[in-house]
Design goal:
This protein is of the alpha+beta class and 814 residues long. Helix 10 runs parallel beside helix 12 (516-535) and helix 16 packs parallel to helix 19 (724-736). It is globular. The mean pLDDT is 97. The structure holds alpha-D-glucopyranose (2 copies). The site of one alpha-D-glucopyranose (GLC) has 11 residues, from helix 8.
């Protein structure tokens, strides 16, 4: 069952009923100011950091689901009846309802009693404010007088403190009201120089800033006392819970409409000039006023919206494709890169499944996310790489997470996740292939953000490999540390205490448990380093890496091959994990994908056997399961993985992040049909028709789909902030469609289904627009390239001479 439809021409998903199985959200903002907005206008906003600079309140896990947001109430002043044009929070029936989630904006429209409302929410590019652009239309035959109330609840800035230290916060809330603008200035009197504001383009008939005055005793957002009675109280918050609510009265003749603009924003004054007049306690608004005036102007609002649209056209224009499959086109051209940008901006911090209070930026997560957005914002990718490298330790290891505001490593979680550093090699290589900006390797970067320890990034990368080489176990395979990519496979944490953290408990010495996955990742990363070393003319270093690659490969073939698939690991006792000898957890997805991607065992035909085993044992109609059989009980020697009920998360869930590794592996052995079939199983658009089962948004990937062992097999969770976005983008664009940046040019090497006749694509690469036409001449994947009409050897379209901006590529495959 569907709850809406894709409008590809407008790059929107249109939700046609408000009661979606879960709130279906969107993100606004691109630089510093961000907002989460659901299909019923729920969500919250923050400046840079969802914990420390949260503008508005949100109560997670609340009931009714998803209350707290950006609300408007329409009140019929003749009858006293009122409703929410966004359905929530009043939830009174609407005769028509649509929510259009677009790229960086959301438009919610509805009609009730012949009164139509349309609200467009967006953040103008690089601005620290959001616009609610509301239009009310009277479709009745007579005039209509209405009251329009707005409502937001201000958070007291630190979202953690806000829910834990309210004995204090209930005494600190302060506001100012000036004209049609409500200012939230809690703690501005002392050390904060920032404040929030909520402006309205109309003259006010009144306002409220004290939550309890607005709602009335024991009332909720669904029936505020003030809205019910049509009479604001002009309350000024002193402590308790500050809110912002404007009241405006509007009269509309038959067929008339009215546009009203609201602005919700963040502003920061210079500390020495924050009061006006100086010495008073009144916010200095002189710098802010011009911004408010600008965006309360309808012409400016439309211009800002147009520039948002143009920005996305440019970003998405870098890679566009036309195939015979609508799910591929829609995800590649619109939603997948969009989600990649959201993971770039938010990492794993703020979603409807991540509170914005907890995790910092993950080292491995951020490096992998980069693979999905580097082509769109290379400059910002560069900065991200250098930030990440600066949290590396001198040992070559890495802090598992760092804090976005300080950019410092997070001591609470620490390091010793032994896969972490290797991902930095992959992200840097991707950046270099995309940009050819070799200067990044010479950038001086400190270790642990400590001044005086700076070394070129190139040296950091060498330490990444050295870290693994210094930590090999009894079988010559890399030691796993606290965990590898699978955070929940904790082979050195024998945790017996309730509530103990699996991530930070390490009570075994760590000298035995080894990871075949890290071995695969090492080989993949080391091959990148060989290529880089050769380009830099460092042949001795390149040969040194080749020797280590061979020895790790040999160790995998000898001790990491189980007979029909790659083994997952050895545990603390040196026993196999992910082997046919195990009772449960006999085969895991990760080493099959990673080892084949690294090219291990290709010559010996092991790759095909491993992938056939994946197909036989792990593939399901809803995607590829992480391992089978699921763990049915808690294993002290395995850790968190066995803490989940069977079928959920890392315990045999369909962990979507690892699925594209198998898709890529399938293309490596030339099985385009299989690769694309797996691609479609988790492709959100292809799952739209089963939205009632899938439950999460049909336009973005979720981290997890419940596995075969789960009661709710096929049900997704944790949408939006997941490495799934980047890896699926890489799998489909670079491996299945096969258009892949390399140092010497653009490789065109599609491994597509046999029944595709071809496809066309446009890729802007290093400033050159490649127009690519792929034509199938036979069932195979052999390529002949014709560039600007001339046949060339190999599968690489070279970078043309300076000044040439367009290249036409014809690829014949068969
Ligand atoms: C989560 C983590 C990621 C990890 C994955 C598998 O998505 O953010 O770092 O690799 O789970 O455990
Ligand atoms: C939990 C989650 C896992 C995630 C980790 C991050 O273990 O199950 O998916 O990677 O937290 O710390």
């Amino acid at each position: 069952m569907r709850y809406g439809y894709f409008d590809d021409a407008r790059r929107e998903y249109v939700i046609t009923r408000p009661d979606t199985p879960l709130p279906w959200i969107n993100y606004l903002g691109d630089q510093d100011y961000f907002a989460l907005i659901s299909n019923t206008a729920g969500g919250y906003s923050f400046y840079r950091d969802a914990r420390l600079r949260r503008l508005t309140r949100y109560r997670y896990n609340n009931i009714p689901l998803d209350t707290g947001g950006r609300y408007l109430y329409i009140r019929d002043d003749q009858t006293g009846e009122f409703w929410s044009p966004t359905w929530q929070p009043v939830r009174r029936a609407l005769e028509s309802y649509t929510c259009r989630h677009g790229l960086g904006y959301t438009i919610i429209s509805s009609i009730r009693d012949n009164i139509e409302a349309r609200i467009r929410y967006f953040v103008p590019p690089s601005q620290n404010l959001e616009i609610w652009d509301a239009t009310i239309l009277n479709h009745r035959d007579e005039s209509f007088s209405l009251s329009l109330f707005s409502a937001v609840e201000f958070a007291l800035w630190d979202a953690w403190d806000d829910s834990t230290n309210f004995q204090r916060n209930l005494n600190t809330g302060e506001v100012e009201v000036d004209d049609s603008v409500i200012y939230h200035k809690t703690e501005y009197r002392e050390r904060r120089d920032h404040f929030a504001y909520f402006a309205c383009s109309e003259p006010l008939s009144g306002y409220d800033t004290q939550r309890d005055a607005f709602l009335g005793p024991y009332c909720g957002w669904d029936n505020p006392f003030v809205v019910e009675h049509g009479a604001p109280t002009n309350s000024i918050a002193h402590g308790w819970a500050p809110i912002g609510s404007h009241h405006t009265k509007i009269s509309l003749g038959p067929g008339e409409s009215k546009r009203i603009i609201y602005l919700l924003g963040y502003f920061d004054n210079p500390g020495e000039d924050k009061f006006d007049p100086p010495g008073s306690q009144i916010i200095n608004k002189r710098r802010l006023k011009p911004i408010i005036n600008r965006y309360l102007d309808i012409g400016q609002v439309d211009e800002a919206f147009d520039s948002l649209v143009t920005q996305w056209e440019r970003l998405l224009g870098i890679y566009q494709v036309e195939t015979s499959d609508e799910h591929t086109d829609r995800m590649v051209n619109i939603w997948n890169p969009y989600q990649c940008m959201v993971t770039f901006n938010l990492s794993r911090s703020a979603s409807y499944f991540e509170s914005g209070i907890g995790r910092g930026m993950g080292f491995r997560d951020s490096n992998q996310d980069l693979l999905g957005f580097v082509h769109m914002v290379p400059q910002r990718a560069r900065e991200r790489i250098l930030d990440l490298a600066a949290t590396q330790l001198e040992s070559g290891g890495a802090y598992h997470q760092y804090q976005p505001l300080t950019k410092k490593g997070n001591d609470a979680v620490g390091s010793n996740f032994n896969d972490d550093p290797l991902w930095l090699v992959l992200s840097t290589a991707a950046y270099l292939k995309e940009t050819a900006d070799w200067s990044i390797l010479d950038e001086l970067v400190p270790y642990e953000n400590t001044p005086g320890t700076e070394e070129p990034l190139w040296d950091h990368l060498q330490r990444c490999l050295q870290y693994t080489m210094d930590r090999l176990g009894p079988h010559g395979l890399p030691l796993i540390g606290r965990a590898d990519w699978n955070d929940c496979l904790n082979l050195n944490a024998f945790s017996k205490e309730t509530g103990q953290s699996f991530q930070t408990t390490t009570n075994m010495d760590g000298k035995v448990a080894e990871s075949v996955f890290i071995a695969g990742l090492f080989v993949l990363a080391a091959k990148e380093m060989v290529e880089l070393a050769e380009i830099r003319g460092l042949t001795t270093l390149a040969s040194h890496y080749k020797v280590t690659i061979s020895s790790i490969e040999a160790a995998v073939l000898k001790h990491g091959w189980d007979g029909e698939w790659f083994l997952r690991a050895y545990d603390h006792f040196g026993e196999e994990v992910g082997s046919h000898v195990c009772q449960e957890g006999q085969i895991f997805i990760e080493p099959q994908g990673m080892c084949v991607m690294a090219g291990i065992g290709l010559g010996k035909n092991l790759a095909m056997r491993a992938l056939d085993s994946v197909n036989k044992r792990l593939a399901s109609e809803h995607g590829i399961i992480l391992h089978q059989p699921a763990y049915t009980k808690y294993y002290l020697n395995l850790g968190e993985i066995s803490s989940y009920p069977p079928g959920y998360k890392e315990n045999a869930g369909i962990f979507c992040h690892a699925n594209p590794w198998i898709m890529i592996a399938e293309t490596v052995i030339g099985r385009g049909d299989q690769a694309h079939d797996y691609y479609l199983r988790i492709n959100p658009s292809a799952r739209e028709a089963i939205s009632d089962l899938h439950k999460c948004e049909p336009y973005v990937y979720s981290q997890m789909i419940a596995g075969r062992d789960a009661v709710a097999f096929g049900e997704a969770k944790n949408s939006w902030l997941t490495g799934t976005a980047a890896w699926n983008y890489v799998a489909i664009t670079q491996w299945i469609l096969g258009i892949r940046p390399t140092y010497s040019g653009l490789v065109i090497s599609p491994v597509i289904p046999k029944d595709w006749k071809g496809f066309s694509a446009v890729r802007v690469f290093r400033g050159v627009t490649y127009e690519i036409y792929v034509e199938r001449r036979g069932p195979g994947d052999n390529i002949s390239l014709i560039i600007n009409g001339n046949p060339v050897e190999g599968n690489t379209a070279p970078i043309p001479a300076d000044g040439i901006q367009k290249v036409s590529v014809k690829a014949l495959i068969g």
